[in-house]
Known about the structure:
Radius of gyration: 17 Å
Helix content: 40-55%
Oligomer: single chain
Largest sheet: 7 strands, parallel
Amino acid sequence: MSTYVITGAGSGIGAEIARRLRESGHDLVAIVRSERRAAELTGPGVRTVVADLERPETIADALAPLAEETFAGLVHSAGIAELGTVAETVEVVWSRTLTVNVVAVAEVTRVLLPALRRGRADVVLLNSGAGLRTNAGWTAYAASKHALKALADGLREEEPALRVTSVYPGRTATAMQRGVREQEGGEFEPERYSDPATVAGVVVSTLTLPGDSRIDDVTVRSRG
Length: 224
């Protein structure tokens, strides 16, 4: 079967995507942030590579050996969300948010492009509803997700051999969403949100779409 590279495979939507791909018999390369996380995820059919997305200058060396391989797809599921108004958001939050959510995504993609081109691969970027509109208190996060959309759109134009898809989930019942609700001062109500497995199913369906078609953008919203 094919091999897919994924970030954010340790929790939430990324973990569900990884599970579904493994259940379908595919091999995975999980890009993880620490040796501890690598030990947790490494297993049959799953290799790990440690790369710190908060330090994109280190990514090229960490991922260089992978550029010699051939991959069927790359899924960018890792991301961070720190809320606050423009008046409240200090430089370090802007820098960290843009670095993890955009710069690291671009660098991982750049380094792996030779392997992705060989596989005529799919590249899926987990975006957010914040990548389509901006609400008060979400400006830094939304700015990163708008930039992520631009990255996907540009990559699609520049690399016609690849299929590039942006997925825009709404609120999803993940640990990240729990943290968001804490920042908002509200309750975490998973029954009102999309199940991570549902969003993962949408992602995997784009990865397994027949070769005659492509999905550029897809929005997933809860019915709650």
